[in-house]
Specification:
mainly beta; elongated
Length: 193
């Protein structure tokens, strides 16, 4: 049981109390929010920004070029903050600290060639994290993961995924593999500012 404050459409705020020490806020329709037991500011979960986007189909990666990765399909987007049709970017509407993840799988590679791949996350048009990986390909695909944790202002800050691809042996192209399990860009609000 818990002490409940309810907002009704007929009698305004009503209160039902007990001795549990738990406080809940309720709408007239019965939706409940439990207020956590903390000192200071408490973050109450709601429709906080979280998204998971993937590439629907292969995206060609040109040789020797840094390109934006166009994650054009969504598994979910809780606060409508990810644009999967035009800018392919995440612009959260709540100021806070965010965990962002990038998983890419590069395919259409030839055995025995030397490649350079650098997955990157950009904030407001500038790289905030990325690494370069040089390798000699032994089969037709290779995967990379990258994570970033940082703050976003909730109004103008945005994040995008990029990759640099270089076929150092023959100048060929690569492909960002499409499908919900191959290449993903996702993130969520950890806590508000």
């Amino acid at each position: 049981m818990a002490s409940v404050i309810t907002a009704t459409t007929t009698s305004g705020l009503t209160q039902s109390a007990d001795n549990s020490g738990v406080l809940q806020l309720a709408s007239g329709t019965g939706n409940l929010v439990t207020v956590p037991s903390v000192t200071g500011t408490a973050m109450v979960s709601g429709n906080m920004p979280a998204f998971s986007a993937y590439r629907n189909g292969t995206q060609t990666l040109s040789d020797g070029v840094t390109q934006k990765l166009n994650f054009n399909a969504e598994n979910f987007d809780t606060a409508n903050c990810y644009d999967s049709t035009t800018n392919y970017r995440f612009t959260p509407n709540v100021a806070g600290y965010y965990q962002i993840n990038l998983v890419i799988q590069i395919g259409i590679l030839t055995s025995g060639r030397n490649y350079i791949v650098s997955p990157m996350i950009y904030k407001n048009g500038s790289r905030v994290i990325g690494y370069e990986y040089d390798f000699n390909q032994w089969n037709d695909t290779i995967g990379f993961t990258l994570s970033w944790f940082g703050s976003m202002n909730g109004t103008t800050d945005y994040l995008e995924a990029y990759a640099y691809f270089d076929d150092a042996s023959a100048g060929g192209t690569g492909g960002l593999a499409g499908a919900t399990t191959n290449s993903m860009f996702n993130g969520f609000l950890v806590r508000a500012l």
